[in-house]
Amino acid sequence: METKVLLHKDKDMKLAKSDIAKQPVQLDLWKMLTTENYSNSVELYQTLPDVFSWKQDPLRNPDWTLPLLARKWVYNWTPYTLDITPAHIGVVGSGNHKTKKAFYKNTIAEFVEYALHKLSIAEWFFLPDSLRDKEFALITTFYKIRTELKKMWKTYSYEQIKDWISILAWLRYQLSWEMSKSHWLDSFFSPIDLIIKNDKKNPSHSELYINFNKLISKKILSLDWRGFNYTEFMKVKTSFGRSLFMRLSHRFKQSDSINGYHFLLSTMIDEWLLQEDLITSNIKKINEWLKDCAYIIDHFKIEEKRGVNPKTKRTALTDYKVIVFPTKDFQQEQWRINTHHKNMKNHRIDENWKAVIKPLRDQYPTWHDYDRYVDDCDTFEKAKEPMVTSNN
Q1: How far apart are the C-alpha atoms of 134 and 123, rounded to whole Å?
Q2: Residue 322: which region, alpha, beta or left (left: phi > 0; alpha: psi -120 to 50)?
Q3: Is pLDDT larger for residue 365 or for residue 195?
Q4: Among residues 12, 293, 250, 269, which one has the least CA distance to residue 133?
Q5: Do 304 and 317 touch, CB atoms closer than 8 A?
Q6: Which residues pair with residue 210 across a beta bridge?
Q7: Which sign does the torsion angle of CA 46, 50, 56, 58 carry?
Q8: Kind and range of the H or E element at 122?
Q9: Does residue 4 lie within any of the structural domains?
Q10: How far apart are CA 117 and CA 164, in angstroms?
Q11: Which residues contact 87 (CB under 8 A, 6 or more apart)?
């Protein structure tokens, strides 16, 4: 297997992981979750239309290459264009010979990447003397990734995880947007940078040295991320359903049973979440995928848009508007996430220069937890206001 080669930072990474005192306060906040079922999401990165959920073989050239993939979408009323250069890795073909083959990011790679993000809650760190470069790193193993995916009912082989980790490292993204609303983005990046320190005796325990793209690290340092229900998200079977799940997790910040969120079938096609196909076929897919998000969506309404077909001169279905409304459980969850997010922004610093936030009462469900809740409240009250709340 071929991997992307970085400067050898293994000693620096291990030193940074052991020297907690040099880590920024924001890292403490990144690791604070309301429950173990949650993970953290950087909204713009998690809404990139970069997952290719259809069969890739029909697009391949005779030499196994794939064309540049261009996708357009709108985020917060700003149009973006994402050009994806496929990854090329060696795969075993006929006669046990390795052949270079191109890949886009598929659903397996999507799950692997979310597992890496979940592992980051406990194990990520910033490299020493490089906070200006905002290099946020993770040391893990194939075994840990596979174990995390198994917890989420995803059983992949060591070889599959190894291949898709390499694909995440070799993909190249070129992002174009309105410069005045850049969100601190780098225009050219890969999902991860990767070094593999192979263990020949036990390959599944080979150490992986991973740097994620700078967008994530910058958002961590600016406290600009949001929690979401990782356990429920990983249950969603379809790529469209997961994309909708993530969008609703961010759009329904102030969710209620009256105000819904709507989207158009034409928008889903423009943003490459659906293929340009018969409208009736796409409607069937949408209805199936809405049921896939039953944890968030209590019910939905449909508004059909009709117009005159210029060729047949007959009235025909031209678009399909879907309005979704959240479940009560999801509304309560969003309230808890909002409160946690507010407490995170209003964090304090204890005598050991560690971040402390106001505890949520429902994080202490039994009477046996009450004394710990009182102690945590007392710790928060005694902590000091931070002098700087962003890039410490």
Answers
A1: 16
A2: beta
A3: 195
A4: 12
A5: yes
A6: 138, 194
A7: positive
A8: helix 107-123
A9: no
A10: 15
A11: 102, 103, 104, 166, 167, 168, 169, 170, 171
d(CA 211, CA 206): 16
Q: Is the distance from CB of 137 to CB of 126 less than 8 angstroms? A: yes
Indicate if the pLDDT at residue 190 is higher than 60.
yes
Number of H helices, E strands in the chain: 13, 17
Residue the block writes with tokens 């005694």? 382
Question: Residues 119, 190: one domain?
Answer: yes
The values of phi and psi at residue 74, to 5°, are -120, 130
For the entire predicted model, the pTM comes to 0.85
- Radius of gyration for the alpha carbons in the chain, expressed in angstroms and rounded: 23
One domain, residues 124 and 264: no
157 in the same domain as 21: yes
Give the Cα separation of 165 and 138 in Å (integer): 13
Give the total number of structural domains in the chain.
Answer: 3
3-class DSSP state of 370: helix
- Burial, 235: exposed, middle or buried (Cβ in 10 Å; 0-12, 13-18, 19+)? middle
pLDDT digits (tens, 9 = 90+) for 217-234: 888 888 999 999 999 999
Give kind and range of the element (H or E) at residue 289.
Answer: helix 279-292
Residue 1 falls inside a structural domain: no
Per-residue pLDDT tens digits for 266-309: 777 766 666 666 677 777 778 888 888 889 889 888 888 888 77
Q: Give dist(CA 30, CA 70) in Å, integer.
A: 32
pLDDT at 7: 42
Give the C-alpha separation, 280 to 119, whole Å: 41
Are 191 and 212 in contact by the 8 Å Cβ rule? The answer is: yes
Cα 79 to Cα 72: distance, rounded to the nearest angstrom? 7
Percent composition of the chain: helix, strand, coil (DSSP 3-state, to 5): 40, 25, 35
Final residue in a domain of this structure, among 174, 198, 233: 233
Evaluate whether residue 336 is within a structural domain: no
The answer to the question of residue 340 being in a domain is: no
Place of tokens 């031209």: 318
Q: Are residues 162 and 89 in the same domain?
A: yes
Q: Which amino acid is at 326?
A: P
Based on the fold, state whether residues 36 and 123 are members of the same structural domain. Answer: yes
User: Cα torsion for 17, 22, 23, 28, to the nearest 10°?
Assistant: 100
